[in-house]
Amino acid sequence: MSDIRLEPIPGSDPELKLALSASGLPTEDLEDAGRSFFRAVSADGGTVGYAGMEACGDNVLLRSLVILPEHRGKALGKTLTRETLKAVNVSSAVFLATTTAAPFFETLGFIVVERGDVPPAVLATRQLSGICPASATIMKLNRPPT
User: Fold this and answer.
1) What is the pLDDT of residue 124?
2) Is 62 exposed, middle or buried (0-12, 13-18, 19+ CB in 10 A)?
C-alpha cells in the first residue's frame, strides 16, 4: 500500500486535529489564514495520514505531516511528503521545522539551515515564532536548479 491521494480538508477538520494532537504536533493555528491541509487516502478509501503547508510570501512552510499509527512503517511518510510537495510551486523555497524527524526529512532532500538563513516571512509564522521550540531544527528542501 504505497499509493495515496490527497484530499483537501479545512484546518477545522476534527480528525486532523486529533491525529496531530495524538502525535504531539501543534494544533493552535490550524484555522489561521494561508494554510492548506490534506487527508492522505489509500486506494481502499481509508485515511492513512495528514499533511499541511503554509504560504509565506513566495516560500512555503511544510507542516503537520503525520501518518496514523496503524499505517506507520510502510514508507507512507515519504509518499505523503512527496505528494504534498507536488502542490508547491517549483519556484518556491520549502522550509520545515522539526524536533524529532530531521533524519527522515534528510532522506527526502531537506538540509538543515540556520535561522539566519530563513526568510523573514517564514520566521514570522506562528509555527517558527512561538509554537515550535527555539531548539527545533529548521530545514530547507535542497532542490536542483530549475
Assistant:
1) 87
2) buried
